[in-house]
């Protein structure tokens, strides 16, 4: 049985949470995502000069976990600087420390506007894998409005915006069962949320039976736009299929 993930303690939210190269329009930029705890790790070590053991204690994690958070944060920043990308700081799995109290203050989840059970809290967005029906393998491809017969699925980590593409071309030749097969594919990929345009009743039943939440009516936008809407809490979780 896997050990439960330990919530990271953060002293404060970053004052500025978006950086971009000068002189390049936002529409022409690629974004990378740095989590709140990643930014905190950089602040503790690279700004305050704490050693790894002390910094790990500040964030209430092991030295190994802290080292992994710091390494990932440095890689994201380096990638943005050397590749001319914008940096968006948001999301993660963290608690804001309460000044003068023993317990940190949990950040609310914007999808519910409620704090959790006081043990493991999320930050601006719960870090789940999202599967989006896509017409291509990139974040800037259009959302495929069909779920079962979509060209493929982009599996997105909303915290880092790392992606993995699953081809679904074999569904084009199927007479029946395309939706159920597609549901099996995204479940095997570890997705906890599916975003698409139209999802049939059999596929919807298969997804919800596997504990996967469904967001519909996400057509007429890019995959990146659909993920951003989900992260802002603007995608409603459906309780029935829309087709």
Keywords:
243 residues; alpha/beta; Butyryl-CoA Dehydrogenase, subunit A, domain 3; Nucleotidyltransferase, domain 5; 2 domains; 5-stranded mixed beta sheet; 3-stranded mixed beta sheet; 6 helices
3D architecture notes:
There is one protein chain. With 243 residues, this protein is α/β, with parallel strands linked by helices. It has two domains: 8-106, Up-down Bundle (Butyryl-CoA Dehydrogenase, subunit A, domain 3), CATH 1.20.140; 130-231, Nucleotidyltransferase, domain 5, CATH 3.30.420.130. 28% of the residues lie in helices and 17% in strands. The chain has helices at residues 36-47, 52-58, 63-83, 178-188, 201-209, 223-231; strands at residues 8-10, 18-19, 31-34, 86-89, 94-96, 105-106, 130-134, 152-157, 162-167, 193-195, 213-215. A five-stranded mixed sheet has the order 9-8-7-10-11, sandwiched between helices. A three-stranded mixed sheet has the order 1-5-6, with helices on one face. The protein has a three-stranded mixed sheet with strand order 2-4-3. α5 (201-209) links the parallel β10 and β11. α1 (36-47) crosses α3 (63-83), α2 (52-58) packs across α3 (63-83) and α4 (178-188) packs parallel to α5 (201-209). The longest helix has 21 residues, at 63-83. The protein is elongated, with a radius of gyration of 19 Å. It starts with 7 loop residues before the first strand and ends in a 12-residue tail after the last helix. Mean pLDDT is 81; it is low at 98-126.
């Amino acid at each position: 049985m896997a050990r439960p993930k330990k919530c990271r303690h953060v002293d404060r939210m970053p004052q500025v949470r978006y950086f971009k190269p000068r002189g390049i329009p936002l529409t022409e930029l690629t974004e990378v995502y740095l989590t709140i705890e990643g930014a905190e790790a950089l602040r503790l070590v690279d700004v305050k000069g704490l050693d790894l053991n002390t910094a790990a204690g500040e964030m209430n994690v092991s030295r190994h976990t802290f080292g992994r958070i710091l390494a990932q944060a440095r890689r994201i920043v380096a990638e943005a600087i050397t590749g001319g990308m914008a940096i968006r700081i948001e999301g993660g799995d963290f608690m804001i420390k309460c000044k003068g109290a023993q317990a940190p203050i949990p950040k609310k989840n914007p999808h519910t506007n409620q704090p959790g059970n006081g043990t493991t809290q999320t930050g601006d967005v719960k870090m789940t894998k999202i599967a989006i029906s896509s017409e291509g393998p990139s974040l800037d491809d259009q959302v495929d409005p069909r779920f079962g017969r979509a060209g493929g699925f982009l599996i997105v980590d909303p915290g880092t915006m790392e992606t993995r593409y699953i081809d679904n071309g074999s569904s084009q030749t199927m007479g029946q069962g395309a939706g159920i097969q597609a549901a099996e594919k995204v479940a095997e990929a570890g997705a906890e949320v599916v975003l698409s345009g139209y999802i049939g009743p059999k596929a919807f039943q298969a997804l919800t039976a596997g504990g996967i939440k469904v967001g519909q009516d996400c057509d007429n936008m890019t995959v990146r736009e659909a993920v951003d809407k989900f992260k802002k809490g603007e995608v409603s979780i459906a309780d029935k299929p829309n087709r």
